[in-house]
From TrEMBL:
GO biological processes: protein maturation
Sample GO molecular function, one term: carbon monoxide binding
Family that this chain belongs to: Belongs to the HypD family.
Keywords: Iron, Metal-binding
Keyword field contains Iron: yes
Claim: Glycoprotein is one of the keywords in the record: no
PANTHER family in UniProt: HYDROGENASE MATURATION FACTOR HYPD (PTHR30149:SF0), HYDROGENASE PROTEIN ASSEMBLY PROTEIN HYPD (PTHR30149)
Protein name (Swiss-Prot/TrEMBL): Hydrogenase maturation protein HypD
Length: 374
């Protein structure tokens, strides 16, 4: 399959591993920002095949995982109301709120629907003018543009019974938040390629300069990851700290101008709470004044709802790279994908889910899907 098989080629992977081994002379800690990259790394055993000097720290780039408990509780409250059709991507339905999840609400009679596009939710709104239709808009710079476009279309078409529950977050302020934490051990970043395909790379040079860290825009296949690691390690060994694009087949410096225009029209930057991490200034979006009437928090008056996160779940430490999932006491015992305590065990991009799925338990053998290299 084009753009897939050739990026999993074992011989090319072997050469990249050899190059990295020949380059590295001392320990380095690299953070892959995106949960999709984390899953690729764990699935293919890349972290186990790299030289022991290189540690890959899993970052906060899983959109489901960083959505705060408070926002899940707001979704549950809205979805429970009579006359509401609550639409979401499927991976949010099992994310635990306080005492229940969206599946529970559906079991109790709530009209909760899985959709595959926010435009599906808009269609449902057109077909059900006597109902309030809400779409749960979560995620990074990747999912924000289609959600922005849906609100734009709702206003253009005069569909007033549609609204968006917004929990969008931005990567650069999260990097800044991580780097200013006293516990931070990260020395280089593998930036999320799909985020940069939308936003471009111009937000990153100032971060690389200020924190003196290499930032390498990286894709998601095994060779993409290895190339990102290779470039980051080369910079670290040379004492450099630049932004490099190791994912040029998808990322241009300017990103996607049409998507960025749509974001700038519909959203405005705001402070956002991240699950287990807390509020990071300017790290998210909310609907701009012109589109505020489509804000579900305002329409359903749930803006004041606050929640305390359970102490047992250490997903905040996992999301900041301070703890590996299998180092959490609840991992694989009271917390499993069937009985998740936190979103990082539920989401298809969550680090805890990756460790569980690929049997990365303490003392467990190398995963079965390790690439035949090295
Ligand atoms: S293993 Fe479960 S309880 Fe522990 S951090 Fe992950 S999601 Fe939270």
């Amino acid at each position: 399959m084009k753009y897939l098989d050739e990026f999993q080629d074992p011989e090319l992977a072997r050469r990249l591993f050899d190059d990295i081994r020949a380059t590295v002379t001392r320990p380095w800690a690299l953070m892959e920002v995106c949960g999709g990259q984390t899953h690729s790394i764990i699935r293919h055993g890349i972290d186990q095949l790299l030289p022991e000097e290189i540690e890959l720290i899993h970052g906060p780039g899983c959109p489901v995982c960083v959505t705060p408990l408070e926002m899940i509780d707001k979704a549950l409250e809205i979805a429970s109301r009579p006359g509401v059709i609550f639409c979401s991507f499927g991976d949010m339905l099992r994310v635990p709120g306080t005492g229940r999840d969206l599946f529970t609400v559906r079991g109790e009679g709530g009209d909760v629907r899985v959709v595959y596009s926010p435009l599906d939710a808009l269609r449902i709104a057109r077909e059900n003018p006597d109902k309030q239709v809400v779409f749960f808009g979560i995620g990074f710079e990747t999912t924000a543009p289609p959600n922005a476009m849906t609100v734009y279309q709702a206003r253009r078409l005069g569909i007033r019974n549609f609204s968006l529950l917004v929990s969008h977050v931005r990567v650069p302020p999260a990097i800044e938040g991580l780097m200013t934490s006293p516990d931070c051990r990260v020395q280089a970043f593998l930036a999320a390629g799909h985020v940069c395909s939308v936003m471009g790379t111009e937000e990153y040079p100032q971060l690389a300069e200020r924190f003196r860290v290499p930032i390498v825009v990286t894709g998601f296949e095994p060779l993409d990851i290895l190339e990102g690691v290779r470039r980051a390690v080369r910079q670290l060994e040379r004492g450099e700290h630049r932004v490099e694009n190791a994912y040029p087949r998808a990322v241009r410096p300017e990103g996607n101008p049409a998507a960025r225009r749509m974001l700038a029209d519909v959203f405005e930057v705001t402070d956002r709470a991240w699950r287990g991490i807390g509020t990071i200034p300017a790290s998210g979006w909310r609907l701009s004044e012109a589109y505020r009437e489509f804000d579900a928090e305002q329409r359903f008056e749930v803006g004041d709802l606050t929640t305390v996160e359970p102490a047992a779940c250490r997903s905040g430490d996992v999301l900041q790279g301070l703890l590996k999932p299998h180092e959490c006491e609840a991992f694989g015992t009271v917390c499993t994908p069937r009985t998740p305590l936190g979103a990082t065990m539920v989401s298809s991009e969550g680090a805890c889910a990756a460790y569980y799925l690929y049997r990365r338990l303490a003392g467990a053998p190398t995963p079965v899907e390790v690439a035949p290299v090295g």
